[in-house]
Amino acid sequence: MTAPLLEVKALAKRFPLGNGWFQRTGSVHAVNGVDLTVYEGETLGIVGESGCGKSTLGRCMLRLLEPTEGEIVFQGKDIRSFAKAELHRARRNMQMVFQNPFDTLNPKLTIQKILAESLIAHHIPMTQRQQLIEETIEIVGLSKRHLSRYAHEFSGGQRQRIGIARALMLRPKLIIADEPVSALDVSIQSQILNLLQDLQEQFALTYIFISHDLSVVEHIADRVAVMYLGKVVELATKQELFQRPMHPYAQALLSAVPVTDPDEKKERIILKGDLPSPSNPPSGCTFHPRCHACMDVCKTAVPRLREVEGRLVACHLYEQ
Ligand code: SF4
């Protein structure tokens, strides 16, 4: 294992609900005490149903959303203690790729100007800017002639290449990719995944790859964290998780992944009910109302994420 690049400790994000006469009070526990370590050069996949808090966690790790509690240690420093200027400098090494780049590419700016923005913000000398822009647009598989165009002139796959180029402009160490291929056709998805893998090798990048699509995560991740209602419930290597998920929620999620081998039989586990509201999570293990293995203890006691057979699992089934 390489050195840790990013560690989050007891990270929590709560969104307050309204407090007027006709509004509900309280808060939504979007991220609820997450501990994670991301090692240099790896790809950590984060999976879970929509609404489980994985995107909020990704944004909190970069402080694009301010966490309510916890630590974010990047390259040995707690960036939660950073003032604005120091955080701005740290962000040079921490970038994000979003699901739909069209929403985040300014339609009034040419691609040249979009790519120049971060270079200007980080005071990269003008003499180096053009070279970096031209080099980067070609690295992501586009060309210099695309620089004078606007975002609406590109296909979804090309826009995502521009989104990746923008994240790459400052040659960061960490990229958090939030559902980067979910909006793309399957044929384009594999091109973008291959591009991300090539870039990882070329620039020694570390990725946090957030996705609801387990097949995509299986393709790209080294380790995978499974999230349920704001918490990590299992963290394992890709091989361990896909061959033998241990947490009942991870078992249900993985039972829905299509198999490519026609001789392989897989029993689908259908989850009962919907994801509960994060503003009013169930007591004990928050998965207990949907869990086929639920025991009495699960309704009252919160399971801790602990080491089980070389991986981390939060489930009373594995407690002695
Ligand atoms: Fe199911 Fe209990 Fe494990 Fe939760 S702690 S996943 S309810 S067995």
Notable features of this structure?
eight-stranded mixed beta sheet; alpha/beta; about 325 residues; about 25% strand; binds iron/sulfur cluster
Write the layout of secondary structure elements.
Blueprint: E1 4-16, E2 27-39, E3 43-47, H1 54-61, E4 69-74, E5 77-78, H2 84-90, E6 94-97, H3 101-104, H4 111-121, H5 126-139, H6 156-168, E7 174-178, H7 186-203, E8 206-211, H8 214-220, E9 223-228, E10 231-237, H9 238-243, H10 248-255, E11 306-308, E12 311-313
Parallel strand pairs: 3-8, 3-9, 6-7, 7-8
Antiparallel strand pairs: 1-2, 1-4, 4-5, 9-10, 10-12, 11-12
Bound molecules: iron/sulfur cluster.
Residues 247-248, 285, 287-288, 291, 293-295, 298, 303, 315-317 line the site of iron/sulfur cluster.
